[in-house]
Amino acid sequence: MKEKGRILIVDDDNYVMLSIRILLEQHYEDVRGINNPTQIESAIAENHYDVIILDMNFKAGETSGSDGLKFLKLIKTHSPTTSVVFITAYGEINLAVEAIKEGAFDFLVKPWQNEKLLTTISAAYQLNRSAKKIEQLTSKQTVLNSILDAPFSEIIGESDAIKSVLRQIEKVAQTDANVLITGENGTGKELVARAIHRSSNRSNEVFLNVDMGAITETLFESELFGHVKGAFTDAKADRTGKFEAANGGSLFLDELGNLSLPLQAKLLRVIQDMKVVPVGANQARDFDARLICATNANLESMVKENQFRQDLLFRVNTIEIELPALRERPEDIPLLAEHFLNNFKAKYGKKGLFAPDYVFKKLTKYDWPGNIRELQHAIERAVIMSDGKQLQVSDFNLKATNEVDNEQFDSLNLESLERWAIESAIKKHQGNISNAAQELGLSRGALYRRMEKYEV
Prior knowledge:
Layout: E1 3-10, H1 14-24, E2 28-34, H2 40-46, E3 51-55, H3 66-78, E4 83-89, H4 93-101, E5 106-110, H5 114-149, H6 160-173, E6 179-182, H7 189-198, E7 207-211, H8 220-225, E8 226-227, E9 239-240, H9 242-245, E10 250-254, H10 261-273, E11 275-276, E12 285-286, E13 290-295, H11 299-304, H12 310-316, E14 319-322, H13 333-347, H14 357-365, H15 371-385, H16 414-428, H17 433-440, H18 444-454
Parallel strand pairs: 1-2, 1-3, 3-4, 4-5, 6-13, 6-14, 7-10, 10-13
Antiparallel strand pairs: 8-9, 11-12
């Protein structure tokens, strides 16, 4: 199988150029040749070459190598990642070595050995691919950093409720105070925890996320505090626990309310002492990690019911940030919906897809018991299942609400009846507008107008 590399041969000896080209075309998809070095600039302007094989001299009797060095500089100026391999006569090897110092990858000696030539070009090609990957990663990282450096860029909303959360994040981030984030499932607790970390003095250090509900009682100490080799049957090597691994950074303990009372006691001891003792070890180890916890449970009620330790609650909630449910910030739903829609349009290659205003209004009226996470999943599903360019309310598969299903229709309320008929037809035909319109005796356009009217 040929490599997808693009290779350019520059040599004024047509026989040399043709011989190399025939050899390389067996291994690379795009191999081209030119015999006039003045064409190099236009050639690299039109195409990016992974490797350029360049003669050192282009004038009869010329042995200085000055032409080769001149065109090497030209190539590196216009295409820095291109690997340049010189091809030279035996007597010019010293010049070729000098050229490598100026940025050439390697040199080949005339007459060449085919195996040596293929090996050299392969190495030059791989170097070019690596250079391009590094360039792409650097560019990508620059973009990501610019996004992450923007204050709270991932937290979307303009409601008073979310603005209050942002103000709390801003105040608490610069401290090392323990933070407890509360709120229903899907409200974005981890997003807030990451925002606190990124805005803190520990932003250049690690952020570790631990789902406390997913750790079994038997593995709790090993996961969080670590263990030494031989501490138990499967302990074949020392293991660093999450507290030590987060040293210098932030440790996010999610679903804190799921811990049993015995595990709460062990966690409390570590937080109080700021020391951990790995399983099987005798000496305590210091750690320095900023603690951020989260829960969807009402810990104060759990304390009253003797299900959560009050002293642990005091330790973890120096500052408490309560996140509002999505139904409590309905004005943010269109912003979030548009954000997710744009993301999934790009992900699934549906750039022309859009949602009309009445669809966003319908989404705003829905309760969203699963909060932002449910909204995100609903929009992803709608984008995947959509057939046309315009999303409809029926694409979102929202759970039935009392608004329609339990409505008692007045026989004289024609609008209610018409709306019910439209929704029923669309549901019956699983969102197929053409079939629904046909059953209702309407054109597609007429049905779309009624859907917009009734926000269906």
